[in-house]
Write a structure and sequence with these properties.
By secondary structure, the protein is an all-alpha fold. 74% of the residues lie in helices and 0% in strands. The protein is built from 14 helices and no strands. Helix 3 crosses helix 14 and helix 4 runs antiparallel to helix 5.
Amino acid sequence: MSSSPTPAQPVSRSPWRSLRHRSMRWWSVANFVSNAGTWMQLTVQNLLVLQITGSAAATGLSMSVQAAPALTMNVLGGAAVDRRPRKLTAAVSQAMLSAIAFTTAFLVALDRLDLTSLMVLAAVTGMIATVDNPACALLGNDLVPAEDVPSAIGVGALVFNAGRLAGAALAGVTVGFLGTAAAYFANGFSFLFVTAVIPSLRPAAGAVRQVGEKGKRPQAAMSVREGLAFFARRPRLMALAGVTGISAVFGRNYGLTLAVLVIGPLAGGAGAFGTVSTVLAVGGILGAVLGARLRRPSVRLVGALAATGALLQVVAGTSPSLAVLLVLVLPMAVVESVSDTAGTAVLQTDPPAHLRGRVLGVWGSVGTVWSLGGPPALGLLMELAGPRGALITGGLIIAASIATGHLLHTRRSTAPLPLPTSITPRPALETAA
């Protein structure tokens, strides 16, 4: 007597579904500890530079020195991630970051840290990060089935924000009671914790295994050029880059545009902008939860969300009061966060497994260009049009660009194929020349 088939279980849309896998739970805990330590260090690093030099320009220079390697070395870092097993690469990079944090801590404790050594340590940290960032991002995705990747990315965004809040809060307490060196020691131990957790991580059933994880690695994994070519030839990745780039330049820099709007036309102060920043953070967390519910994110969804956020930005530019602005800021942050989660899911799942590190490397280099060029361009726009004009103009540019791209794509997709030309029949036998 044959048994009746087991009914298929309903597909989960819970934002927390990736956490049903044991390794993902451990990875999330490790990421929280690491993010808290990193933000603790970043919180005190600017103060440390100011203490050493007394110069705000030097503080900005130290941040640029740490970010500069991403502009040119991200592609190489992504290639390194593709050449080696993800767990090994992430463990080694985390251990190296731990060594840098401990070195800085000892130099601070012994009062031996000067500006030159600090810049060197910042530059080395930036170089290691070009490998560590894609390795850790992809390692989390390797632990869960493909349908749970958006949840893993959403949980990662929540862990990032929670670690940022915890690290900033702990920094003040740590420095107040134990001194600046203690923040660097804490960050060093946080990296060691991640290094200790990584070897115990095991992919869940149905997780996509990294090509070359076992056995002979394909020769294609050795080519940096192939990663660049794949990105350039993939229309959906180019479209994603276009949507994200136009949004990064003319929107999203709310720390700049909303600060000027609140302090200027709305006649608020630092406390008022602090309230706006808090609402932005809450919206980001809510958006990460909603984004984690996605199962099959697409570039079309990213574009629709980016256009929606741009239109909200236009309305925000007309806000007559701080209260109205606060009402608009929450959905702006939610839409931006969901769009980021969807875009990251597309970026990390579209390429074949053996190319994902290099694709993330290309994306990191392009993103660095946006982050460096966006604020100056937006600042110039505010100089010309004012904060309200910058928000309105920027939002309209984003929405119009995305709508134009969608129309062109639709027209290209629906264009009728050319009719085949008539072919003159040739005789069965022809005279040889």
